[in-house]
Specification:
The complex is a heterodimer.
Chain A lengths: L3 E2 L4 E5 L4 E3 L2 E2 L6 E8 L6 E7 L7 E2 L2 E6 L4 E6 L8 E9 L10 E2 L3 E6 L1
Parallel strand pairs in A: 2-12
Antiparallel strand pairs in A: 1-4, 3-9, 5-6, 5-10, 7-8, 8-9, 10-11, 10-12
Chain B lengths: L4 E3 L2 E4 L5 E6 L6 E7 L6 E7 L2 E4 L8 E4 L6 E5 L8 E11 L2 E8 L3 E5 L1
Parallel strand pairs in B: 2-11
Antiparallel strand pairs in B: 1-3, 3-8, 4-5, 4-9, 5-6, 7-8, 9-10, 9-11
The chains are: A mainly beta, B mainly beta.
Chain lengths: 118, 117
């Protein structure tokens, strides 16, 4: 089964509008972390935002916020006031923190390609 | 430099050849990761080091792939008898570690693009 599911292969948004990129995850661990990364056409992976499974508040970083719904196992990324430079691939990822097992690596989804229209 | 450094940035080789890809992590980061990213896909985990030892190599696709990190800093990903299907961007990343394990985000290098003809 997919650990991270991103159901939107591509999304369009008008400049200055807000957009939500979906991410659902699958884990039986109680302790885990959720990450969003941006990958522009240049190929670099840029960290955007992090949410811990025990964090009660939704994470926010500037124009990025994470809509964390633990019961639904969803961690959607919201980008407010979209800019042309936001056009990129966006990846959701999870790190499971099951101490004693493999707790290191991030598991990535397949990504969503966001295109911002002027 | 301050970031994760990967060399070469591009490598073209012929089927059946041996290839080495190098990663120099951020100073002080004891956790180091290798990922493979095919066109239009998300990064696929290969192997993760904690210090000198491979803490998880479950992502290596077969025994043609091997990675080392002998002194706990620089790592080399080695691919033997390359196949056309090995063509991808190989990403290296590093992160901080606490007593409980890796913490925080992964910092990625710019990747090594491997093309097997």
């Amino acid at each position: 089964a997919q650990k991270i599911t991103q159901t939107q292969p591509g999304m369009f948004v008008q400049e200055k509008e807000a957009v939500t990129l979906d991410c659902t995850y699958d884990t039986s661990d109680q302790s885990y972390g959720l990450f969003w990364y941006k990958q522009p056409s240049s190929g670099e992976m840029i960290f955007l935002i992090y949410q811990g499974s025990y964090d009660e508040q939704n994470a926010t970083e500037g124009r990025y916020s994470l809509n964390f719904q633990k019961a639904r196992k969803s961690a959607n990324l919201v980008i407010s006031a979209s800019q042309l430079g936001d056009s990129a691939m966006y990846f959701c990822a999870m790190r499971e923190l099951n101490y004693g097992g493999s707790q290191g690596n991030l598991i990535f989804g397949k990504g969503t390609k966001l295109s911002v229209k002027p | 430099g301050a970031g994760v450094s990967q060399t070469p940035s591009n490598k073209v080789t012929e089927k059946g050849k041996y290839v080495e890809l190098r990663c120099d992590p951020i100073s002080g980061h004891t956790a180091l990761y290798w990922y493979r990213q095919s066109l239009g896909q998300g990064p696929e985990f290969l192997i993760y080091f904690q210090g000198t030892g491979a803490a998880d190599d479950s992502g290596l696709p077969n025994d043609r792939f091997f990675a080392v990190r002998p002194e706990g800093s620089v790592s080399t990903l080695k691919i033997q008898r390359t196949e056309r299907g090995d063509s991808a961007v190989y990403l290296c990343a590093s992160s901080l570690t606490t007593i409980q394990g890796p913490t925080g985000e992964l910092f990625f290098g710019e990747g090594s693009r491997l093309t097997v003809l």
